[in-house]
């Protein structure tokens, strides 16, 4: 979230890798429960497993080996094996995947594509549902708008977000990946202030799809699975030429999260994250990659 990279790794040189959530990088006001920090860690955990498989290492994951309250989120035992048959595509998807907040085209995401992404998420142990009904989508857009209005009325949380825009050369969201126009008729509504990326086209009704990821409970065990599911959805969508934008604000705002759970999910599961999927215009300007911290800063060898 906000490219905070809230993780720490250790590796013992003998195939055992540990992933910790870095609470010092948790967003105190926007993410007081640490939901988005753990989801972010789940995504990076799954990226590790996919990358390891591509490089010829099978990763057996044990989640919360010291219980759900501990910052140690997962242990991965790596065993040498064969590179996965999809290795080249997987590594390419990890390298090229990015959050592109520009407006999608009006090409609809076909139901079967959306449902294939839902199936990917469920295989990672998350609950997932495509919001493909028009009435439900209308309701969702209203809830998302309400979340934006409620958050905008909280200047301290808003200041936290703004601190993470152009934060540093190794973390935070650079202004040069954010759309320059905040008019919803031009760019999709966003929690971020205007950046410097110009929209080249406008469409009145983008054909995007939305998936809700969640779990039986609103807890760390479920958040980690949701992050792993987000990673799988993102890599698959990238391979298929689609773009993904996670939307956490409607889940972050308590009143909106409760309504989402009641009105849209009918208490079927607890929502953790919304994911918007769509097609970006062919031939668009490439976006610069967001920066990452050096490996030496996030990995300690023991
Ligand atoms: C848990 C989580 C929540 C996120 N919520 C939002 C969001 O509400 N709005 C948004 O525009 N991007 C959101 N993002 C995207 C991040 O800002 C983005 O992944 C991060 O800045 C790194 O950039 P990259 O994806 O281009 O590598 C979220 C990402 C995660 C993992």
Automatic annotation (TrEMBL):
Residue ranges, annotated region (Disordered): 170-203
Originating species: Nocardioides panacisoli
Name of the molecule in the record: NAD(P)H nitroreductase
SUPFAM superfamilies tied to this protein: FMN-dependent nitroreductase-like
PANTHER family on file: NAD(P)H NITROREDUCTASE RV3131-RELATED (PTHR23026:SF123), NADPH NITROREDUCTASE (PTHR23026)
Superkingdom in the source lineage: Bacteria
InterPro entries linked: Nitroreductase-like, Nitroreductase/BluB
């Amino acid at each position: 979230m906000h490219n905070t990279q809230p993780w720490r790794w250790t590796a013992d040189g003998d195939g055992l890798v540990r992933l910790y959530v870095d609470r010092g990088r948790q967003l105190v006001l926007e993410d007081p429960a640490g939901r988005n920090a753990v989801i972010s860690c789940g995504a990076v955990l799954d990226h590790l497993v996919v990358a390891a498989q591509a490089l010829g290492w099978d990763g057996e994951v044990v989640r919360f080996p010291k219980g759900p309250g501990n910052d140690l989120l997962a242990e991965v035992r790596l065993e040498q094996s064969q590179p996965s048959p999809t290795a080249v595509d997987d590594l390419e998807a990890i390298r090229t995947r990015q959050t592109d907040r520009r407006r999608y085209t009006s090409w609809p995401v076909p139901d079967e594509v959306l449902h294939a992404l839902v199936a990917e998420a469920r295989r990672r142990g998350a609950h997932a549902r495509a919001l493909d009904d028009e009435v439900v989508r209308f309701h969702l857009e209203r809830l998302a708008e309400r979340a934006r209005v409620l958050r905008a009325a909280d200047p301290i949380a808003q200041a936290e977000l703004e601190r993470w825009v152009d934060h540093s050369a190794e973390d935070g969201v650079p202004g040069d990946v954010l759309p320059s126009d905040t008019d919803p008729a031009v760019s999709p509504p966003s929690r971020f202030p205007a950046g410097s990326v110009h929209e080249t086209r406008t469409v009145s009704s983008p054909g995007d799809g939305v998936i809700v990821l969640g779990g039986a409970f609103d807890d760390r065990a479920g958040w980690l699975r949701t992050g792993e599911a987000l990673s799988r959805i993102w890599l698959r969508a990238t391979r298929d030429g689609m773009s993904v934008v996670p939307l956490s604000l409607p889940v972050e705002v308590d009143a909106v999260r409760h309504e989402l759970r009641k009105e849209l999910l009918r208490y079927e599961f607890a929502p953790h994250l919304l994911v918007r999927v769509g097609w970006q215009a062919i031939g668009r300007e490439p976006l610069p990659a967001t920066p990452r911290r050096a490996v030496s800063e996030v990995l300690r060898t023991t």
